[in-house]
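Materials and Methods. Structural model of Cyclopropane-fatty-acyl-phospholipid synthase. The 433-residue sequence of Cyclopropane-fatty-acyl-phospholipid synthase from Streptomyces chengmaiensis was retrieved and submitted for structure prediction as follows.
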Amino acid sequence: MADAAMRLTSLAEELLGGPLPVRVRAWDGSESGPEGAPVLVVRHRRALRRFLWRPGELGLARAWVAGDIDIEGDLYQALDLLSGVVWERGDAPRGGLLRAARDPRLRSAAAALLKAGGTLPPPPPPPEEVRRRSGPLHTKTRDRQAISHHYDVGNDFYELVLGPSMVYSCAYWGEEEAAGLADAQRAKLDLVCRKLGLREGDRLLDVGCGWGSMALHAAREYGARVVGVTLSTEQAAYARKRIAEEGLTDRIEIRVQDYRDVRDGPYDAISSIGMAEHVGQVRYREYADRLFTLLKTGGRLLNHQIARRPEKDEAAYHVDEFIDRYVFPDGELAPLGRTVGALEDAGFEVRDVEAIREHYARTLRAWVANLEADWDRAVGLTSPGRARVWRLYMAASALSFERNRIGVNQVLAVKPRDTGDSGMPLRSRAWAG
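The predicted structure was written out as tokens:
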């Protein structure tokens, strides 16, 4: 295929009905498209087959993870430009673009693209992809497998991406430009402790405790006695080592345990930071009920959770295929209103909601910068495909927060007393100081 880039650009624009917003460099070294724009590098013909047999983000994601395509230039700009030209799920049925294109002119262009990619069957998915699962969602066994896929990829890799704070959730940035990621993560942990009103000797349950950063901060800075639960064996081992090194084993216990199996309440406070996204819609009321039961009367819950925008037709909502196959298997996002409603239905009084989505965009950009700055080591710690998954997922997520496609919220709730006294400060957000 002589001058492949020109042909690809022409066929793509025919299918799209408009100009392609990025420049294309094909496997033969040819280039076509707007000067100065980010370059979509098509390294191998099979990238076309991946996309044509699975139009939309999953086909592109497979090509990206496999290294069949790449981006030169500003990755964020390229993703922003390409987001407007990718077919949404439902626009093309399974079986590929050839069956979807009913217009003879489009069918001809699709056939030409398929020919350019070679007439072989679709390539197998990259090994980093989770295969389709069967059976009920969010059983304890299935949740444990999903958590292991995402979190048990090596603590050294997470150290490289997250930095020394080892906090895998949205940081809390101040106005000072000089403040770094570690300072912003510490500020977030301290904000959570202040919202929970932690005091010396309080029992704190940290649900989804990760690598132990929240537990360490609460015990060290506030004198709390902490139980942290996680389904990740690698996280638990790392957290226990940190706790021992700081001499806090008498104050912190880390368990490999499902939150549904915690039975030693009541706790004075519960933190759930970036965990509820794994719970799923079918289990969310059970999640709220369980935390309500584990909390003492008058105790506080801080639920820190990513939220999606509500759909006009909620029945049409679908899980992002790339995220489901490569990043968070079985993860689900809910609108903020649904989360608040479930907590209230369980008996909580919701006292405060703080939206901090801009903070997450900045956090993700910091993680991407860490990954890119030590790329070769990241690849060595995992695999080329896994490192590419993370770069794409974090950069795309940063854009989603910036464009208000998704948000993140801290919801502070209280288990009410019979007297009606909430135990909260009279002035709202007294912890903000």
